[in-house]
Amino acid sequence: MPGADGQMRSLHVIREKFEESVHGKQLCVGCHKDITQIPHQKNGNIRVGCVQCHQDLWATAQKENRTRNYAKLGTVVKQIDRYMKSIHAQPNREDQSRTNATCYNCHDAHYVYPGGSAIRAQWRLNIPNICGKCHTRELAAYSTSVHGREVLQASNPKAAICSDCHTTHDVENPSMDSTRLVITKNCGNCHEDSLKSYTQTYHGQVNALGYAYTAKCFDCHGSHAIQRVGDPKSSVHPGNRLQTCRKCHEGATAGFVTFEPHATTHDYHRYPYMWIASKFMLALIAGVFLFFWTHSALWFYREYKDRKERRTRPHVQTHALSQVPEKYYRRFSLAWRLVHLFFALALMILSLTGMAAFYAETSWAAAVMNALGGPRVAAIIHRVCAVVILGLFVGHVVYFIVHFAPRWRTFNWFGHTSLVPGLQDIRDIAAMFRWFLGKAPRPVFGRWTYWERFDYWAPFWGLTIVGGSGLLLWFKEWTAATWPGWIFNIATLAHGEEAFLAILFLFTVHFFNNHFRPDRFPPPDIVMFTGAVSLEEFRREHTLEYDELVANGQLEKYLVDIPSPSMTLGSRILGIVLLAFGLTLLALVLIGFAGSIG
Q1: Which end of the chain, N or C, is less surrounded by CB atoms within 10 Å?
Q2: Domain 272-313+337-356+363-502: what homologous superfamily?
Q3: Helix, coil or strand: residue 534
Q4: CB 393, CB 459: distance < 8 Å
């Protein structure tokens, strides 16, 4: 006879099968409540309300405080709530009086079997045919796919069926962003390693942030007619891959074909370039922090101990100081202070926008991206800041050429006034460690110390790796036309790892050297904002330069008035804000790093 959806259905119930179902102990009239006599009324309108029945039973269990005894019923009610919000529960376009699909379109009410039972596993394999009653084209395509052949022909219980991808009760329109995100996540339920490697690409990072516009699994591999990669009909077969890439990247060149979207760093035989690059970056990171964190820890110990014993209370009395006791030494010009400020601000914003993508699976990353207006806006901000830093870098190189080219023969390139590293830096490092260990007095330095020289040259190295890889990723069509596609994998790895190294170094080692040493307390040090340093500190920290200026009678040429109270206050506020911003970034990155290895 016809059911509520107008389709003819059998009234025959197999007793043995029914008794194995979850409704096996239920009386017929428990569901068919409008049957009140035998024989049944002729032309009766028999209606069964699955939703109302389960909700009424759950309401009774709650009223009687017996919800623990009916936990499975509570699960069903939650499934009903999700179903009511799904596309299946919406009115049918052709017949507004009925929904797109009811409970019994998917479940045979007489044969609903408990999870884990053998008969339910058999029923599961038939779900594609059940869905295919409405979705005939999708079933036809699925039947030809690698998933469909495994399910419908080989009866493989582990192969994907419709509900594995589209979910069960809360099925939504596949064109919706939320659905695209859910289906991608569901692919990872079976293809865990592939989802993990996908998440490490920019496509996957944007996806993890909750945005659906970048390529998902099905955008590349197809949806219902997925084939194995080696099958010529597969959309990711080498012969079809460029056409697939061009669905999003219209200007894609042959280099796109050799990009490895699922490359990992632990498989040398499949991805040798990634393996080598990752081991190099790990060795670099480990080497840098093994040295500098040890250096900082010993330095802190030495200064703290000396400060506690009141050894660091110098009292400078020289003829220069006695003549001009109210003067400071001008260490940095306004131009250099502005360059430092713009560089610091641009770098911090770069760090925020870049690390939010790098650690896209963290909750803070999603919050940052939402606050910035999404990954597209964040990418624009990121690139603007990158251009600012590149402009500062190029400007510095031009300044260097113009300023030093006329006197390249006479300038002492390895002297204490030069930023070029030399053998003296190695001697100074050794002397500093002897002081750390109490084996020698603290060494004296000239205009530039070895750690300041390292700070100076580190951006050259960083810009080469981060900037170079960033340009390759930014201008991807040009990159793919010139380089093989695996260069994208290397560039992505190097870009993120070198940025991670730079952030940790700047906000731990650099901050310690300049702000958090016991001799610098209380932070922040504001010399880079005011440009001036007290003569006492200048003589103590840069003794060789001080002595040389005094001996040559040139000290007074560099003396300036003490920074005004307003300048000092403003510099301290700016310094505290930048320190707070930097330390916050450091905390976010460490949270992301801990989550990535957890």
Answers
A1: C
A2: Transmembrane di-heme cytochromes, Chain C (1.20.950.20)
A3: strand
A4: yes
CA angle (576 as vertex; 573, 579 as ends), nearest 5: 150
Phi, psi of 184, deg, nearest 5: -60, -45
Band the pLDDT of 11: cuts 50, 70, 90.
low
Beta strands in 376-434 (DSSP E): none
User: Taking the C-alpha atoms of 475, 477, 483 and 484 in order, what is their torsion angle to the nearest 10 degrees?
Assistant: 130
Rounded to 5°, the CA angle 110-111-114 comes to 130
Query: What Cα–Cα distance (Å) separates residue 332 from each residue in 26, 445, 498, 527, 530?
Result: 87, 17, 29, 8, 8
Give pLDDT tens digits for 417-453: 999 999 999 999 999 999 999 999 999 999 999 999 9
The pLDDT of residue 312 is 59
Domain chopping of the chain, boundaries: 1-112, 272-313+337-356+363-502
* Measured distance CA(572)–CA(520) in Å, rounded: 13
Alpha helix ranges (H) inside 146-271: 146-148, 162-166, 177-190, 192-199, 202-208, 217-221, 241-245
Distance between first and last Cα of the chain: 58
- Axis-axis angle for helices 450-462, 486-504 (nearest 10): 150
User: Average of pLDDT values for 39-61?
Assistant: 75
120-142 average pLDDT score: 93
Nearest in space to 568 (alpha carbons), one of 520, 515, 526: 526
Please say whether the beta carbons of 204 and 198 come within 8 A. yes
Q: Cβ(284)–Cβ(276) under 8 Å? A: no
Task: Give the whole-angstrom CA distance, residue 438 versus residue 440.
Answer: 6
β-pair partners for 559: 329
Whether pLDDT at 315 is above 80:
no
Q: Look-up: residue for tokens 């998902």?
A: 216
Cis amide leading into 375 (omega within 30): no
How many other C-beta atoms lie within 10 A of the C-beta of residue 303? 19
Number of other residues whose CB lies within 10 A of the CB of residue 204: 23
The reported pLDDT for the residue numbered 244 is: 96
Gap between the Cα atoms of 40 and 18, Å rounded:
21
